[in-house]
Write a structure and sequence with these properties.
alpha+beta; 3-stranded antiparallel sheet
């Protein structure tokens, strides 16, 4: 799981690049303010977020995606 935690911070910029390629190359749009705003907002919504939750058994770190929640560190 350590490798996964090292890759997570790079997913947001990678998603920006992927959505940019889809919008600008495949859909053949010109880069303007609205397409960049859509690109960055989609990447933000679909990128994973870390959350620390305190439970009776102790703290645990969760990774939350759009429809996915998983415990990655249970101390």
């Amino acid at each position: 799981m350590n490798i996964f935690k090292k890759i997570i911070p790079f997913l947001f910029p990678i998603l920006i690049i992927v959505f940019g390629l889809v919008i600008y190359k495949i859909m053949d749009y010109e880069p303007n303010f609205y397409s960049i705003l859509i690109n960055i907002s989609l990447a933000y919504i679909l990128s994973p977020k870390f959350k620390t939750v305190i439970k009776q058994s102790g703290e645990e770190e969760q990774i939350k995606w759009l429809f996915f929640k998983k415990v990655i560190d249970n101390n």
